[in-house]
Design goal:
Chain A: GO terms for molecular function: ATP binding. The complex is a heterodimer. By secondary structure, chain A is α/β, with parallel strands linked by helices. In chain A, 31% of the residues lie in helices and 32% in strands. Chain B has one domain. Classes of the chains: A alpha/beta, B mainly alpha.
Chain lengths: 295, 261
């Protein structure tokens, strides 16, 4: 018998429309289609990215997958469970981490936050103590766990969020813009943590609007804009799709006569321009895609 | 086993997490001084008006103060989660809702009980109101019952917080209704018929009535019916609260109101 591995996340034509009404007497309604029928599949152990600008529908998609929102169209299965009909099964097996300052009990210590969420996720008490210690070490908060969260920096909070999301050893982790608002060093550490998670076999769905972050981390990326997936490929494949050419900029002082014409005469060069910037000049060379125009 | 832990450990942790009044600067004025001021106000008004004796006003106003934590703290079990941004995490967790929210009621009931007992004890000492020592045991049981039933109403308020952001407004209205209708400052017998009908369905009414009877020397057995009615009403409100909670949780997923309500 041949076993065909099912995708860990299977999304088919998923859609979500928000309806809002305002006004006390003459109530007017408004409909916003946040997600307009997106489809994708995430394989086990994959780090899959949803890349798009703010308001593209990334968070709405994640909220449907973690059962916080009902879809208004299409369907989605996580680990074989329907996100509408089997919500509790999905919740047991997935972790959810979102970016920003909120989502923690400020007056409790980091340790008590983790203990409480361990209870909510049914982590047995004996296992909980060891698991929390492991996670505190993983996210670099060991030694600070007894301090109240209200005194934590944004980076520390984000790392505590990651630890919280991993308490019950989820098979799938949803990371919704986890690096938003944290400094470059903190973001780099966070990306290292995410890479480690994938190395240990956790499937990760990450949303971000930082292209470099998606490029560095993701095995595949779905580019989402205005509620639709407009491209889906590996980072290298996506770059290939949008490549319109190579651009080389060279800062020069005293550009010799005839150089511009000589460069322009090269077969793969499409255009050459020179711009004066103060005492220097910038020579910009546009070449055909895939051409190495460096000397 | 996990449900039991969520009930006891989770309930206590969330109580510590959500309530800012646990600092002495907030706790002492809110739970210890304000009830005494309320008692003194109504006792002196009662004396001036010659409506009833000091004990009547002392008991009503001391016991109704159990409603402050029972209504506000319970309502805040959802409202506080929303303020901290933890509500989506709570809803997305697989924890069973009944032990989760009933567990949150346990510290609240104890809080309400202690507030009312303190107010009654100190009020009686300061105002020199005679409540026979032998009756205090029964009175304590009746106060506990009042706290339980009022927390049932608080759970209904907590459920509504899934849809309405300002739960303190609802809790204030509920507290006002209790002060007017539950026999706190006006004997239920002296109210018009429609008010008596309303008071019969409110938490605290039957409990306060039982405490008056106990303080005048009647046995616990003789007020058993009133206390059972009080417990029954509390259970009805709690069940209604859990049902509304379930419905509004489902509705919040349909209408996307968790972050916006």
């Amino acid at each position: 018998m041949v076993c065909v591995a099912q995708p860990v996340i299977q999304v088919d034509e998923l859609a979500r429309t928000f309806r809002s009404r305002k006004g006390l007497f003459r109530r007017t309604g408004k409909e916003v289609e946040a997600v307009k029928g997106v489809s994708f599949a995430v394989e086990r152990g994959e780090l899959f990215g949803l890349l798009g600008p703010n308001g593209a529908g990334k968070t709405t998609t994640i909220k449907m997958l973690i059962t916080l929102l009902m879809p208004t169209g299409g369907q989605a299965r996580v680990l074989g469970h329907d996100v509408v009909d089997d919500a509790r099964d999905v919740r047991r097996k997935v972790g959810y981490v979102f970016g920003g300052d909120r989502g923690l009990y400020e007056r409790l210590s980091g340790l008590d936050n983790l203990r409480y969420f361990a209870e909510l996720y049914g982590v047995p008490p004996r296992e909980s103590k060891q698991r929390i210690a492991e996670l505190l070490e993983l996210v670099g908060l060991d030694g600070r766990e007894k301090e109240r969260v209200e005194g934590y920096s944004r980076g520390m909070r984000q790392r505590l969020h990651i630890a919280r999301g991993l308490l019950h050893r989820p098979e799938v982790l949803f990371l919704d813009e986890p690096s938003i608002g944290i400094d470059p060093v903190g973001a780099r550490e966070l990306r290292a943590t995410v890479k480690n998670l994938v190395d240990t076999g956790t499937t990760v769905l990450l949303t971000t609007h930082y292209m470099f972050e998606a490029d560095e981390l993701c095995d595949r990326i779905a580019v989402i804009a205005q509620g639709r997936i407009v491209a889906l490929d590996t980072p290298a494949g996506l770059k290939q799709q949008v490549a319109t050419g190579s651009v080389l900029e060279v800062d020069v002082f005293g550009l010799p006569d005839g150089v511009v014409e000589k460069v322009r005469a090269e077969p793969d060069v499409l255009a050459v321009a020179v711009e004066v910037q103060g005492q220097a000049e910038v020579l910009t060379v546009h070449a055909r895609p895939g051409t190495d125009v460096t000397p | 086993m996990n449900s039991l832990r969520i009930f006891f450990v989770g309930g206590l942790t969330s109580y510590r997490a959500l309530f800012n009044w646990l600092t002495p600067w907030i706790l002492v004025p809110t739970f210890l001084l304000t009830p005494l001021f309320q008692i003194f106000l109504f006792v002196y008004i009662g004396r001036t008006a010659g409506v009833s004796d000091d004990r009547f006003f002392l008991i009503g106003n001391a016991v109704v103060n159990a409603a402050v934590p029972c209504l506000f703290a319970m309502g805040n079990t959802i409202g506080g989660e929303r303020n901290f941004g933890t509500l989506p995490l709570l809803i997305a967790s697989p924890a069973r809702r009944v032990p989760l929210f009933l567990g949150r009621a346990l510290p609240v009931i104890l809080n309400g009980f202690l507030v009312a007992v303190f107010a009654l004890l100190v009020g009686a000492l300061v105002l020199r109101v005679d409540i026979p020592p032998a009756t205090w045991g029964g009175i304590a049981v009746a106060i506990a019952v009042c706290s339980v039933s009022c927390t049932g109403l608080g759970l209904l308020g907590a459920a509504i917080a899934l849809r309405v952001r300002e739960t303190a407004v609802l809790s204030n209205i509920a507290l006002g209704i209790l002060i007017v209708f539950a026999g706190v400052n006006v004997p239920v017998d002296a109210m018009p018929g429609w008010m008596q009908a309303v008071s019969g369905w409110l938490p605290m009414t039957h409990g306060i009535e039982a405490i008056h009877a106990l303080a005048s020397g009647r046995s616990v057995g003789s007020v058993g019916g009133a206390l059972l009615t009080e417990v029954g009403l509390g259970a009805c409100y709690a069940l209604l609260g859990l049902a509304v909670l379930r419905w509004l949780e489902w509705e919040s997923r349909v209408r996307a109101t968790l972050d916006t309500a």
